[in-house]
Design goal:
By secondary structure, the protein is α+β, with helices and mostly antiparallel strands. 30% of the residues lie in helices and 19% in strands. Strands 12-11-10-13-14-16-15 form a seven-stranded mixed sheet. Strands 1-3-8-5-6 form a five-stranded antiparallel sheet, with no helix packed on it. A four-stranded antiparallel sheet has the order 2-9-4-7. A hairpin with a 5-residue loop joins β5 and β6. α5 packs antiparallel against α10 and α7 packs parallel to α9. The protein is globular, with a radius of gyration of 37 Å. 34% of the residues are buried.
Length: 470
């Protein structure tokens, strides 16, 4: 009865949580229940509600974006899409009387940011002393954020794999299942970096694709110009060789990756930005470990020696990845299938490439080991072959076996050995107790011995009688 009562109580306590989880509703958009706190700001606020990522509200130093709402709105999340990333942002929440409830400095804003709103808040303001550009602001009430609204984590402090993509979409077209397999299935720390970015819409496409493929830490968007060239020389005229190499060294030192994956030295189909990324990365890997190189990033992060560098289609020390293996975390879909699904979220680029390259001249399965600090690959099917598992974020140290310690030598007179506790009673068998069964067994044994003695004696007497009376 006690067990039943406790179990019933446990189910009663668990029921509300289970019901809430099963019946979680999508958070409603309550933006329309808010308005600008300043009439002069009304036009700018309308730009943040037009559903167009290409339009934005611009604020100079000393100006702030602000909204107010009533208790009816029950705002719980502010979803802010920055048109360009500000140096920082100051978010202030106030109550209905205008008293400040919180003041938060966001040191590293991400392009699409979710900010929790206090239940008692009735207004918020966002500002930056160096100015800012806000594309969209959407307010949500209580509930699960809708699809497409993702609460991104900051960039990794320590990466297992650093994937450097020249543009938004290259991360899937040419690197295939790398992200779904290592970030989604293996749950390793994968930091994605984009060298050049054309427009704001492609940022949203990249974020959607990465989230779909299992990445939760926001990517880094570098400031290099997206200019199409067909040679290394022309690409570096736009980017600058020292600037590009220095930026890559800074990324390596900052994220401390064990493995780096990036483009083909020939630029896949000859794109200069791809070539520049690959060539400068080859130079950056050893320099990142050199304490005499690039003093600024050295002072900020110190040196770092990556264990391996893989280049797409590199002709030496080649390995072939199996992106066609089913991945349990994605319901049995393959890494290549997931890469294709993620790539198709780059809607603006589908006219140029219809699918991820799963074979052929630009196959996303083919790589070469361009640098290693841990020796050449043997199995040639894993970017992390020979990398010490203890260096990775998913490493779990084995539990050491307990070591028996010898009993200490007695230094005092030993105490009396306690009487052994009686053994628990044994259940009777067919109505006979163990004691009765033991007695019966003994009786049978005695009878058997007596019979053997009698028979032996009788045979001996019969033989003697036969000798006397032949």
């Amino acid at each position: 009865m006690a067990i039943l009562v406790v179990g019933a109580a446990a189910l009663m306590l668990a029921a509300p949580a289970i019901s809430h989880a099963e019946n979680a509703e999508t958070a409603p958009d309550v933006t329309a229940l808010s308005q600008s706190a300043n009439k002069e700001d009304g036009r700018a606020v309308r730009r943040t509600r037009d559903g167009k990522i290409e339009t934005y509200a611009k604020y100079d130093a000393g100006e702030s974006f602000s909204l107010v709402w009533t208790a009816e709105a029950q705002v719980r999340t502010a979803y802010v899409k920055w048109y360009t990333l500000p140096d920082y942002a100051i978010l202030v929440q106030t109550d209905e009387d205008g008293a400040a409830l919180s003041r938060e400095t966001i040191d590293e804003p991400v392009f699409n940011d979710c900010y929790p709103i206090l239940p008692e808040a009735r207004a918020l303001s966002i500002s930056c002393e160096s100015g800012m550009q806000i594309a969209e602001v959407v307010l949500y009430s209580e509930g699960t954020l809708p699809d497409g609204v993702y609460d991104w984590l900051p960039p990794l402090e320590k990466a297992d794999l650093l994937l450097v993509s020249a543009h938004c979409d290259d991360e899937f077209i040419f690197f295939g299942g790398t992200i779904p397999y290592y970030a989604g299935e293996r749950k390793l720390g994968v930091q994605v970096v984009y060298m050049a970015n054309g427009d704001r819409a492609r940022v949203d496409e990249a974020l959607s694709g990465l989230w779909h493929a299992g990445v939760r830490n926001t990517p880094v968007f570098m400031p290099f110009k997206d200019v199409y060239t067909e040679s290394l020389r022309l690409a570096l005229l736009n980017w600058g060789e020292e600037e590009t190499t220095g930026a890559l060294i800074s990324l390596i030192r900052r994220f401390q990756p064990e493995v780096i994956v990036t483009h083909d030295l020939e630029g896949e189909y000859g794109h200069g930005a791809h070539i520049a990324t690959a060539v400068c990365m080859v130079n950056a890997v050893p320099l990142a470990a050199d304490a005499s190189a690039f003093a600024d990033s050295l002072a900020a992060y110190g040196t770092w020696q990556a264990q391996k560098l893989y280049l797409h289609l590199y002709p030496e020390h080649r390995i072939t990845m199996d992106w066609n293996q089913p991945l349990p975390v994605f319901g049995g879909k393959t890494a290549l299938e997931m890469a294709n699904e993620a790539y198709h979220m780059h809607v603006s680029q589908l006219e140029y490439h219809s699918n991820v390259y799963g074979a052929g001249e630009y196959s996303s399965l083919e790589y070469g080991l361009a640098f290693t600090a841990v020796g050449q690959d043997a199995a040639k099917n894993d970017f992390f072959e020979h990398v010490d598992p203890a260096r990775l974020s998913d490493y779990i140290a084995p539990t050491p076996a307990p070591i028996a310690t010898p009993a200490p030598t007695a230094t005092v007179a030993p105490t009396a050995i306690p009487t052994a506790a009686p053994e628990p009673p044994v259940e009777n068998i067919d109505g006979f107790s163990p004691k009765m069964l033991a007695g019966m067994a003994a009786l049978i044994a005695i009878s058997a011995v007596t019979a053997i003695i009698f028979i032996t004696k009788h045979k001996k007497q019969a033989k003697q009688k036969q000798r006397k009376n032949p």
